[in-house]
Design the sequence.
């Protein structure tokens, strides 16, 4: 479950043990091939040059297309992961997208 805090670019994830972690939304995108929306997250407060793990989930956007209070879903297939990694690589390597 994701809960949006005061800043629209921050989202709180709660793990199975009830521990909360704050993440920054790197970006969201839609895939016509899979008919889903995706969200990519990095730990809040991480530095631009810091190497961090990027978390990716599928989600159902609200009426505005946002992930506010959305349920996040695990990405289950290798093909879907390959597509998400390709979009992330494009984002990281294209200065105009950052």
Sequence:
């Amino acid at each position: 479950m994701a809960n949006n805090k005061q800043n629209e670019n921050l989202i709180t994830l709660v793990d199975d043990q009830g521990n909360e972690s704050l993440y920054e939304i790197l970006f969201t995108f839609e895939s016509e091939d899979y008919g889903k929306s995706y969200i990519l997250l990095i730990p809040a407060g991480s530095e631009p040059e810091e190497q961090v793990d990027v978390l990716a989930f599928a989600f159902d956007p609200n009426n505005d297309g946002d992930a506010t209070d959305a349920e996040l879903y695990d990405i289950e297939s290798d093909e879907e992961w390959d597509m998400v990694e390709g979009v992330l690589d494009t984002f990281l390597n294209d200065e105009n997208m950052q």
Summary: The mean pLDDT is 84.
